[in-house]
Write a structure and sequence with these properties.
Radius of gyration: 57 Å
Largest sheet: none
Mean pLDDT: 80
Number of helices: 5
Low-confidence stretches: none
Shape: rod-shaped
CATH class of the largest domain: Mainly Alpha
Distance between the termini: 107 Å
Strand content: under 5%
Order of helices and strands: HHHHH
Length: 234
């Protein structure tokens, strides 16, 4: 085999290994969960940042609103001093006008910041919904992964058992049993044949003598008993 063919085969085997790993549902699910958790971390960071901006903006809007109210209060105090004759009317009105101008500016800024805070809070709510969705998805995938791993272990065990069963040569075992059965039957038939051959070796004279000997013994025995009975011998 040339070196190029070997390299090709090794590369082909590696490619199949990569494909098998890519198609592993457990590894794919684990990677998906890791990706989702990374997305979740990014979403939570963004959520924290937006919430922080919303809180600061809402606080700034409140501060501007307080400043506007304070300038309005100061303008009223200046006019009260003018009424009491404690201040020159022109100076009091000029300062009161400046205070009201600042009041309007701060009130406008307070409104703008309040609207901006509303926008950030809406963004935070949307991000919170996304975070909750990702959390739920991660939880679902993690539960599915536990089930998938259990099913994979069961499938692997079943596969291994089935492979072991498949390796058993049932046809070969049956063939061996049939051969053993045939051999036993042959041995039994051979034993019967030897027995018949042993019986066949006896001559006719042997059979006659055996029959006669048995008959005489039986007759003699019967005669002896009758004689002893006649003589009164028990």
């Amino acid at each position: 085999m040339s070196i190029f063919k070997r390299i090709f085969r090794v590369g082909k085997a590696h490619a199949h290994s990569v494909v098998d790993k890519m198609e592993d549902p457990i590894k794919l699910t684990e990677q998906g969960i890791r990706d989702l958790k990374k997305d979740l971390q990014g979403a939570m960071t963004s959520l924290a940042e937006v919430k922080g901006i919303a809180i600061r903006t809402r606080r700034d809007a409140g501060n501007k609103k307080k400043l506007a109210a304070d300038y309005e209060r100061k303008a009223m105090l200046l006019l009260q001093k003018m009424q009491k004759g404690e201040m020159d009317a022109a100076d009091a009105e000029r300062l009161a006008t400046d205070a009201l101008s600042k009041k309007e500016s701060d009130a406008t800024e307070a409104l703008r910041l309040s609207q901006e805070a509303d926008h950030h809070e809406k963004m935070a709510a949307d991000l919170q919904a996304n975070v909750n969705k990702i959390k739920s998805t991660v939880s679902t995938y993690e539960n599915d992964l536990v089930t998938l791993k259990a099913r994979a272990r069961t499938a692997a065990s079943t596969k291994k058992i089935n492979q072991q069963i498949a390796k058993v040569d049932s046809s070969g075992t049956i063939s061996m049993l049939e051969k053993m059965k045939a051999k036993v039957e042959d041995d039994e038939a051979l034993a019967i044949a030897y027995g018949e051959m042993a019986s066949a070796d006896k001559t006719i004279d042997d059979e006659i003598n055996a029959a006669l000997t048995g008959g005489e013994t039986t007759t003699a025995s019967t005669g002896l008993l009758e004689l002893k009975k006649k003589m009164g011998i028990e």
